[in-house]
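To fix ideas at the outset, we first show an illustrative case, written as a sequence plus integers encoding its fold:
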Amino acid sequence: MSMFIGEGLAGDGNEIAHIDLMIGSKTGPVGMAFANALATQSEGHNSLLAVITPNLICKPATVMITKVTIKGLKQAVQMFGPAQAAVARAVADSVADGVIPKDKAEEYVIVCGVFIHPQAADDSKIYDYNYAATKLAIKSAMHQEPNIDTVLARRTEKHPFSPK
């Protein structure tokens, strides 16, 4: 498989976390997207490596991309602080748990879209919800969930943020 795709939603309120991610080889399409995300920065849409702590990136190396335009220092600090730490820890824990094979940690990269609501205020919830959403997205990606039968069986369910 050249690309694994996952999504995860966790939490509630303005701190709700929504993660979209791709996992794949450095030499494939995910590797190309990873390099482009780091090399192509724009105002309000800065990509960053997920680090567990300064000078310690997670493995597989993970680039975080914003899904909402960052419009101020508060949002930037939330992205570069609790969200970054949560994503990095979730990636490392997914390897430790065997969800991502340890022998693929140097071969794979992850492109991770992160949503931070402009009115989010509780950094602890930002961390907790992004950790949970990232773990869920990684598990879904690596297990190729949901399968098509699940999608077809649940296709008429109401989306929580949709009027219909």
In short: The longest helix spans residues 73-96. The chain has a mean pLDDT of 95. Helices lie at 29-39, 73-96, 123-142, 148-154. The chain is about 40% helix and 25% strand.
